[in-house]
Automatic annotation (TrEMBL):
It is found in: Membrane. It holds the Pfam family HisKA. This is Heme sensor protein HssS. GO terms for molecular function: phosphorelay sensor kinase activity. It comes from Enterococcus dongliensis. It catalyses: ATP + protein L-histidine = ADP + protein N-phospho-L-histidine. Residues 133-345 form the Histidine kinase domain. The keyword Metal-binding does not apply. Keywords: Kinase, Membrane, Phosphoprotein, Transferase, Transmembrane, Transmembrane helix, Two-component regulatory system, Virulence. Its EC number is 2.7.13.3.
Amino acid sequence: MKKKLFPQLWMYFVAITFLLMVIVLTVFVCLLFLINHFHLLSPERDDHLFPFYFIIFLSLVIGAVLSIFVGKRILQPIGDLRQAMSKVAKGDFSMQLEEKHQIEDVAELYHDFNVMVEELSSIETLRNDFVSTVSHEFKTPLATIKGYVQLLQNEASESERQIYLERMLDGTQQLTHLTDNILKLSKLENQGIGLDFQIFRLDEQIREVILFLQPKWEQLNLTLDLTLPRTEYYGNEEFLYQVWLNLMDNAIKYSQKNGSIHIHLTNDALGPTITICDEGIGMTKAVTDRIFDKFYQSDTSRKTYGNGLGLALTKQIILLHHGTIQVKSTPEQGSSFKLFLPNDPKNS
Protein backbone atom coordinates (compact mmCIF):
# COMPACT_ATOMS: atom_id res chain seq x y z
CA MET A 1 0.00 0.00 0.00
CA LYS A 2 1.40 3.38 -1.01
CA LYS A 3 2.37 5.58 1.92
CA LYS A 4 0.47 8.88 2.13
CA LEU A 5 2.41 12.11 1.74
CA PHE A 6 1.50 13.46 5.16
CA PRO A 7 0.18 10.50 7.17
CA GLN A 8 0.73 11.95 10.64
CA LEU A 9 -0.64 14.97 12.42
CA TRP A 10 2.65 16.52 13.40
CA MET A 11 3.82 16.38 9.80
CA TYR A 12 0.81 18.46 8.78
CA PHE A 13 1.78 21.17 11.24
CA VAL A 14 5.40 21.10 10.05
CA ALA A 15 4.34 21.23 6.39
CA ILE A 16 1.90 24.07 6.96
CA THR A 17 4.44 26.12 8.90
CA PHE A 18 7.11 25.54 6.28
CA LEU A 19 4.69 26.35 3.45
CA LEU A 20 3.65 29.54 5.17
CA MET A 21 7.26 30.68 5.54
CA VAL A 22 8.05 29.90 1.89
CA ILE A 23 4.97 31.71 0.61
CA VAL A 24 5.52 34.79 2.75
CA LEU A 25 9.21 34.91 1.88
CA THR A 26 8.49 34.54 -1.83
CA VAL A 27 5.81 37.22 -1.79
CA PHE A 28 7.98 39.68 0.09
CA VAL A 29 10.97 39.07 -2.18
CA CYS A 30 8.79 39.65 -5.24
CA LEU A 31 7.28 42.79 -3.72
CA LEU A 32 10.67 44.18 -2.78
CA PHE A 33 11.89 43.51 -6.31
CA LEU A 34 8.88 45.29 -7.81
CA ILE A 35 9.14 48.17 -5.38
CA ASN A 36 12.81 48.64 -6.11
CA HIS A 37 12.37 48.25 -9.88
CA PHE A 38 9.49 50.71 -10.23
CA HIS A 39 10.60 53.05 -7.40
CA LEU A 40 7.23 52.69 -5.73
CA LEU A 41 8.44 53.99 -2.37
CA SER A 42 9.42 57.33 -3.78
CA PRO A 43 8.01 60.09 -1.51
CA GLU A 44 7.20 62.12 -4.61
CA ARG A 45 4.46 59.62 -5.51
CA ASP A 46 1.00 60.15 -4.05
CA ASP A 47 0.38 56.40 -3.70
CA HIS A 48 3.76 55.51 -2.16
CA LEU A 49 2.00 53.75 0.81
CA PHE A 50 0.01 51.45 -1.48
CA PRO A 51 2.64 48.65 -1.41
CA PHE A 52 2.40 48.47 2.39
CA TYR A 53 -1.40 48.24 2.23
CA PHE A 54 -1.12 45.55 -0.41
CA ILE A 55 1.34 43.55 1.70
CA ILE A 56 -0.99 43.75 4.72
CA PHE A 57 -3.99 42.68 2.63
CA LEU A 58 -2.07 39.80 1.06
CA SER A 59 -0.88 38.60 4.48
CA LEU A 60 -4.47 38.59 5.75
CA VAL A 61 -5.62 36.57 2.74
CA ILE A 62 -2.81 34.04 3.15
CA GLY A 63 -3.47 33.76 6.90
CA ALA A 64 -7.21 33.27 6.35
CA VAL A 65 -6.67 30.56 3.73
CA LEU A 66 -4.18 28.68 5.90
CA SER A 67 -6.44 29.04 8.96
CA ILE A 68 -9.37 27.56 7.06
CA PHE A 69 -7.14 24.73 5.85
CA VAL A 70 -5.85 23.99 9.34
CA GLY A 71 -9.34 24.15 10.82
CA LYS A 72 -10.78 21.91 8.14
CA ARG A 73 -8.05 19.29 8.09
CA ILE A 74 -6.81 19.20 11.68
CA LEU A 75 -8.93 21.09 14.19
CA GLN A 76 -12.34 19.94 12.91
CA PRO A 77 -11.60 16.20 13.52
CA ILE A 78 -10.57 17.11 17.07
CA GLY A 79 -13.80 19.05 17.50
CA ASP A 80 -15.83 16.11 16.19
CA LEU A 81 -14.06 13.84 18.67
CA ARG A 82 -14.84 16.25 21.52
CA GLN A 83 -18.54 16.29 20.62
CA ALA A 84 -18.61 12.49 20.40
CA MET A 85 -16.91 12.14 23.77
CA SER A 86 -19.46 14.54 25.26
CA LYS A 87 -22.30 12.31 24.03
CA VAL A 88 -20.58 9.19 25.41
CA ALA A 89 -20.15 10.94 28.76
CA LYS A 90 -23.94 11.45 28.82
CA GLY A 91 -24.51 7.72 28.30
CA ASP A 92 -24.84 7.42 24.51
CA PHE A 93 -22.75 4.31 23.80
CA SER A 94 -24.02 3.98 20.22
CA MET A 95 -21.70 6.79 19.09
CA GLN A 96 -19.25 5.78 16.37
CA LEU A 97 -16.86 7.90 14.28
CA GLU A 98 -15.88 7.36 10.65
CA GLU A 99 -12.41 5.81 10.76
CA LYS A 100 -11.49 6.55 7.14
CA HIS A 101 -9.39 9.70 7.36
CA GLN A 102 -6.42 10.98 5.35
CA ILE A 103 -4.47 11.79 8.51
CA GLU A 104 -3.23 8.50 9.94
CA ASP A 105 -3.11 9.74 13.53
CA VAL A 106 -6.73 10.91 13.37
CA ALA A 107 -7.84 7.61 11.84
CA GLU A 108 -6.10 5.67 14.64
CA LEU A 109 -7.56 8.02 17.25
CA TYR A 110 -11.07 7.46 15.87
CA HIS A 111 -10.49 3.70 15.80
CA ASP A 112 -9.37 3.66 19.44
CA PHE A 113 -12.38 5.79 20.35
CA ASN A 114 -14.77 3.38 18.62
CA VAL A 115 -13.18 0.39 20.38
CA MET A 116 -13.44 2.19 23.72
CA VAL A 117 -17.14 2.96 23.16
CA GLU A 118 -17.85 -0.66 22.20
CA GLU A 119 -16.11 -1.88 25.37
CA LEU A 120 -18.01 0.64 27.50
CA SER A 121 -21.25 -0.47 25.87
CA SER A 122 -20.54 -4.15 26.60
CA ILE A 123 -19.58 -3.32 30.20
CA GLU A 124 -22.75 -1.29 30.65
CA THR A 125 -24.83 -4.15 29.21
CA LEU A 126 -23.09 -6.65 31.49
CA ARG A 127 -23.65 -4.38 34.49
CA ASN A 128 -27.34 -4.00 33.71
CA ASP A 129 -27.72 -7.74 33.16
CA PHE A 130 -25.83 -8.44 36.38
CA VAL A 131 -28.00 -6.09 38.44
CA SER A 132 -31.28 -7.30 36.94
CA THR A 133 -30.34 -10.98 37.17
CA VAL A 134 -28.95 -10.86 40.70
CA SER A 135 -31.89 -8.78 41.91
CA HIS A 136 -34.27 -11.31 40.35
CA GLU A 137 -32.40 -14.26 41.81
CA PHE A 138 -32.45 -12.70 45.28
CA LYS A 139 -35.99 -11.40 45.02
CA THR A 140 -37.60 -14.76 44.25
CA PRO A 141 -36.37 -16.75 47.29
CA LEU A 142 -36.76 -13.74 49.58
CA ALA A 143 -40.36 -13.34 48.49
CA THR A 144 -40.91 -17.07 49.07
CA ILE A 145 -39.41 -16.92 52.55
CA LYS A 146 -41.46 -13.83 53.39
CA GLY A 147 -44.66 -15.54 52.24
CA TYR A 148 -44.08 -18.63 54.37
CA VAL A 149 -43.14 -16.52 57.40
CA GLN A 150 -46.50 -14.77 57.06
CA LEU A 151 -48.23 -18.15 56.81
CA LEU A 152 -46.43 -19.34 59.95
CA GLN A 153 -47.78 -16.32 61.79
CA ASN A 154 -51.27 -17.59 61.07
CA GLU A 155 -52.80 -20.67 62.58
CA ALA A 156 -51.51 -23.80 60.85
CA SER A 157 -51.29 -27.50 61.61
CA GLU A 158 -48.03 -29.12 62.58
CA SER A 159 -47.67 -30.81 59.18
CA GLU A 160 -48.23 -27.51 57.38
CA ARG A 161 -45.70 -25.77 59.59
CA GLN A 162 -43.15 -28.46 58.73
CA ILE A 163 -43.77 -27.96 55.00
CA TYR A 164 -43.43 -24.19 55.34
CA LEU A 165 -40.16 -24.57 57.23
CA GLU A 166 -38.74 -26.94 54.60
CA ARG A 167 -39.62 -24.51 51.81
CA MET A 168 -38.08 -21.63 53.74
CA LEU A 169 -34.94 -23.74 54.12
CA ASP A 170 -34.92 -24.34 50.36
CA GLY A 171 -35.11 -20.57 49.81
CA THR A 172 -32.18 -19.88 52.12
CA GLN A 173 -30.14 -22.62 50.44
CA GLN A 174 -30.82 -21.05 47.06
CA LEU A 175 -29.57 -17.69 48.35
CA THR A 176 -26.50 -19.36 49.85
CA HIS A 177 -25.81 -21.15 46.56
CA LEU A 178 -26.00 -17.88 44.62
CA THR A 179 -23.76 -15.91 46.97
CA ASP A 180 -21.23 -18.77 47.19
CA ASN A 181 -20.94 -18.94 43.41
CA ILE A 182 -20.52 -15.17 43.09
CA LEU A 183 -17.80 -15.17 45.75
CA LYS A 184 -16.01 -18.16 44.21
CA LEU A 185 -16.11 -16.63 40.75
CA SER A 186 -14.77 -13.33 42.11
CA LYS A 187 -12.00 -15.16 43.95
CA LEU A 188 -10.99 -17.05 40.82
CA GLU A 189 -10.95 -13.93 38.64
CA ASN A 190 -9.03 -11.76 41.10
CA GLN A 191 -6.88 -14.25 43.03
CA GLY A 192 -6.52 -17.15 40.62
CA ILE A 193 -2.73 -16.96 40.53
CA GLY A 194 -2.52 -17.82 44.23
CA LEU A 195 -4.50 -21.07 44.04
CA ASP A 196 -3.12 -23.92 46.17
CA PHE A 197 -2.14 -26.92 44.00
CA GLN A 198 -1.49 -30.42 45.32
CA ILE A 199 -1.50 -34.05 44.16
CA PHE A 200 -4.76 -35.96 44.66
CA ARG A 201 -6.75 -38.87 43.20
CA LEU A 202 -8.87 -37.43 40.39
CA ASP A 203 -10.88 -40.63 39.88
CA GLU A 204 -11.73 -40.83 43.58
CA GLN A 205 -12.86 -37.22 43.58
CA ILE A 206 -15.29 -37.88 40.73
CA ARG A 207 -16.64 -40.92 42.61
CA GLU A 208 -17.20 -38.76 45.69
CA VAL A 209 -19.28 -36.34 43.62
CA ILE A 210 -21.32 -39.22 42.16
CA LEU A 211 -22.05 -40.53 45.66
CA PHE A 212 -22.94 -37.05 46.87
CA LEU A 213 -25.51 -36.69 44.07
CA GLN A 214 -26.86 -40.22 44.47
CA PRO A 215 -30.29 -39.13 45.78
CA LYS A 216 -30.84 -37.06 42.64
CA TRP A 217 -29.89 -39.65 40.02
CA GLU A 218 -31.62 -42.46 41.91
CA GLN A 219 -34.83 -40.45 41.97
CA LEU A 220 -34.79 -40.38 38.15
CA ASN A 221 -33.67 -44.01 37.97
CA LEU A 222 -30.62 -43.06 35.89
CA THR A 223 -28.02 -45.58 34.78
CA LEU A 224 -24.38 -44.53 35.22
CA ASP A 225 -21.75 -45.80 32.79
CA LEU A 226 -18.41 -45.20 34.50
CA THR A 227 -14.83 -45.57 33.32
CA LEU A 228 -12.60 -44.20 36.07
CA PRO A 229 -9.10 -45.68 36.09
CA ARG A 230 -6.68 -44.69 38.84
CA THR A 231 -5.46 -41.17 38.05
CA GLU A 232 -3.34 -38.84 40.14
CA TYR A 233 -3.40 -35.16 39.25
CA TYR A 234 -1.64 -32.02 40.45
CA GLY A 235 -4.21 -29.24 40.80
CA ASN A 236 -6.56 -27.41 43.13
CA GLU A 237 -8.68 -30.12 44.72
CA GLU A 238 -11.36 -27.80 46.13
CA PHE A 239 -12.24 -26.04 42.89
CA LEU A 240 -11.98 -29.12 40.65
CA TYR A 241 -14.53 -30.77 42.95
CA GLN A 242 -16.82 -27.85 42.04
CA VAL A 243 -16.30 -28.60 38.33
CA TRP A 244 -17.49 -32.22 38.58
CA LEU A 245 -20.34 -31.16 40.89
CA ASN A 246 -21.61 -28.55 38.42
CA LEU A 247 -21.34 -30.79 35.34
CA MET A 248 -22.84 -33.85 37.03
CA ASP A 249 -25.66 -31.82 38.57
CA ASN A 250 -26.54 -30.37 35.15
CA ALA A 251 -26.37 -33.81 33.52
CA ILE A 252 -28.83 -35.16 36.09
CA LYS A 253 -31.09 -32.10 36.02
CA TYR A 254 -31.61 -32.21 32.25
CA SER A 255 -31.77 -36.01 31.86
CA GLN A 256 -34.94 -37.89 31.07
CA LYS A 257 -36.25 -40.44 33.55
CA ASN A 258 -34.70 -43.92 33.11
CA GLY A 259 -31.94 -42.39 30.99
CA SER A 260 -28.18 -42.85 31.16
CA ILE A 261 -25.15 -40.75 32.04
CA HIS A 262 -21.69 -41.68 30.74
CA ILE A 263 -18.56 -40.58 32.60
CA HIS A 264 -15.23 -41.61 31.10
CA LEU A 265 -11.74 -40.73 32.30
CA THR A 266 -8.70 -41.42 30.13
CA ASN A 267 -5.12 -40.57 30.99
CA ASP A 268 -2.03 -40.17 28.80
CA ALA A 269 1.34 -38.43 28.97
CA LEU A 270 -0.15 -35.00 28.32
CA GLY A 271 -2.85 -35.23 30.97
CA PRO A 272 -6.30 -36.63 31.82
CA THR A 273 -9.35 -36.18 29.62
CA ILE A 274 -12.81 -36.41 31.17
CA THR A 275 -16.01 -36.79 29.17
CA ILE A 276 -19.47 -36.43 30.73
CA CYS A 277 -22.40 -37.28 28.47
CA ASP A 278 -26.12 -37.37 29.13
CA GLU A 279 -29.15 -38.39 27.08
CA GLY A 280 -31.29 -35.44 28.12
CA ILE A 281 -33.06 -32.57 26.42
CA GLY A 282 -29.89 -31.24 24.74
CA MET A 283 -29.22 -27.71 23.54
CA THR A 284 -29.30 -25.70 20.33
CA LYS A 285 -26.13 -24.15 18.89
CA ALA A 286 -27.27 -20.70 20.01
CA VAL A 287 -27.37 -21.97 23.59
CA THR A 288 -24.02 -23.80 23.45
CA ASP A 289 -22.36 -20.63 22.11
CA ARG A 290 -23.36 -18.74 25.27
CA ILE A 291 -23.53 -21.50 27.85
CA PHE A 292 -20.34 -20.40 29.63
CA ASP A 293 -21.42 -16.74 29.93
CA LYS A 294 -22.12 -15.39 33.40
CA PHE A 295 -25.80 -15.44 34.40
CA TYR A 296 -26.86 -16.92 31.06
CA GLN A 297 -29.80 -19.30 31.33
CA SER A 298 -31.43 -20.90 28.31
CA ASP A 299 -34.57 -21.48 30.39
CA THR A 300 -35.78 -17.88 30.59
CA SER A 301 -38.92 -18.98 32.41
CA ARG A 302 -36.67 -20.04 35.35
CA LYS A 303 -38.52 -23.35 35.65
CA THR A 304 -35.27 -25.11 36.44
CA TYR A 305 -33.18 -24.35 39.48
CA GLY A 306 -30.02 -22.37 38.87
CA ASN A 307 -28.53 -18.92 38.52
CA GLY A 308 -26.38 -19.13 35.38
CA LEU A 309 -23.06 -19.11 37.27
CA GLY A 310 -22.21 -22.82 37.50
CA LEU A 311 -20.75 -23.27 34.01
CA ALA A 312 -19.06 -19.86 34.06
CA LEU A 313 -17.37 -20.95 37.28
CA THR A 314 -16.48 -24.31 35.72
CA LYS A 315 -14.80 -22.74 32.70
CA GLN A 316 -12.85 -20.29 34.86
CA ILE A 317 -11.50 -23.14 37.00
CA ILE A 318 -10.47 -25.13 33.91
CA LEU A 319 -8.72 -22.09 32.41
CA LEU A 320 -6.80 -21.52 35.65
CA HIS A 321 -5.50 -25.08 35.26
CA HIS A 322 -4.58 -24.19 31.64
CA GLY A 323 -7.03 -26.80 30.41
CA THR A 324 -9.83 -26.79 27.85
CA ILE A 325 -13.55 -27.54 27.95
CA GLN A 326 -15.73 -28.27 24.93
CA VAL A 327 -19.43 -28.96 24.60
CA LYS A 328 -21.39 -30.77 21.91
CA SER A 329 -25.14 -31.02 22.06
CA THR A 330 -28.14 -31.95 19.96
CA PRO A 331 -31.71 -31.06 20.97
CA GLU A 332 -33.63 -34.01 22.40
CA GLN A 333 -30.52 -36.22 22.14
CA GLY A 334 -28.31 -35.00 24.96
CA SER A 335 -25.11 -33.11 25.67
CA SER A 336 -21.45 -34.03 25.94
CA PHE A 337 -18.80 -32.08 27.88
CA LYS A 338 -15.16 -32.90 27.18
CA LEU A 339 -12.46 -31.54 29.51
CA PHE A 340 -8.69 -31.74 29.21
CA LEU A 341 -6.37 -31.01 32.15
CA PRO A 342 -2.65 -30.83 31.27
CA ASN A 343 -0.13 -32.50 33.56
CA ASP A 344 2.28 -29.61 32.92
CA PRO A 345 0.20 -26.39 32.89
CA LYS A 346 3.23 -24.22 32.09
CA ASN A 347 3.81 -26.00 28.75
CA SER A 348 0.18 -26.54 27.85
